[in-house]
Amino acid sequence: MPGSNVPNNQGNRYYWVPSQGLNFDTCANLVASPSKTTWYYVTITDSAGCQKTDSILITVENPCPQIFVPNAFSPSSNTSANQSECVYGGCIQSLYFAIFDRWGNKVFETTDQSKCWDGNFNGVPMNTGEFVYFLKVTLTNGQTTEQKGNITLIR
C-alpha cells in the first residue's frame, strides 16, 4: 500500500470498505470488480494494534456504447444510411424490439439485433407517419433496460 508505515507481515489485519465489488474485504491481496467507479478505503491494523488507513480509486469505464434507436428513417432514400430501423449498441445479450402503428397494431418485432425494420408490414410498404417502439435489452453485465419512443417513417 503506498505510503503505509505498517510492516507487511502476517500479523496485519485488513478491513476494506465498501465491500461491494470485492472478492474479500479482510485480506491484503484481493480482487476489486465494482460495477461503477468506486473509492475503496482500507484500514490495516498490526499486531501491536497500530492502524493505518489508505484509499484507492477504482475507475470503471463503460466499454459498451449507449443503446440507440434512431427516431426517423427513409426506406426509399437514395443513400445507404437510414434505410431501415435498427437497434444500435454493443454488449447486448438479448433484446425484444417491437414497433406499433398509431392504432396500436404491431407492425414489426424481433429478438435479433441484426434484424431491422424495412418499413413494410406483411410485405406491403407502410405510409409515411409516426410509429411507436418498445425496446427491452439485457446487457452482457446482466443489466436490463427498457426504452419507448417515436419513429418517423419518411417515404
Which structural category do the helix and sheet elements fall into?
mainly beta
The whole-number mean of residue pLDDT values reads: 88
**How far is it from the N-terminal to the C-terminal residue, by CA?**
64 Å
Percent of residues in beta strands?
A: 35-45%
Biggest β-sheet description? 5 strands, mixed
Shape: rod-shaped
Number of distinct helices: 0
The poorly predicted ranges are: 1-7
User: How many strand units?
Assistant: 10
Alpha-carbon Rg, integer? 26 Å
Percent helix range: under 10%
Main-sheet strand order equals: 4-10-9-5-6
Order of helices and strands: EEEEEEEEEE
Quickly name the level 1 CATH class of the largest domain: Mainly Beta
In the residues, how many domains can be counted? 2
Keywords:
155 residues, mainly beta, Immunoglobulin-like, 5-stranded mixed beta sheet, 3-stranded antiparallel beta sheet, 0% helix
Short note summarizing the structure:
With 155 residues, this protein is mainly β. 0% of the residues lie in helices and 40% in strands.
Can you tell me about this structure?
With 155 residues, the chain is mostly beta strands. Helices cover 0% and strands 40% of the residues. It is built from no helices and ten strands.
Question: Topology, please?
Answer:
Blueprint lengths: L12 E5 L20 E8 L5 E8 L13 E2 L18 E9 L5 E5 L9 E2 L2 E2 L3 E11 L4 E10 L2
Parallel strand pairs: 4-10
Antiparallel strand pairs: 1-2, 2-3, 5-6, 5-9, 7-8, 9-10
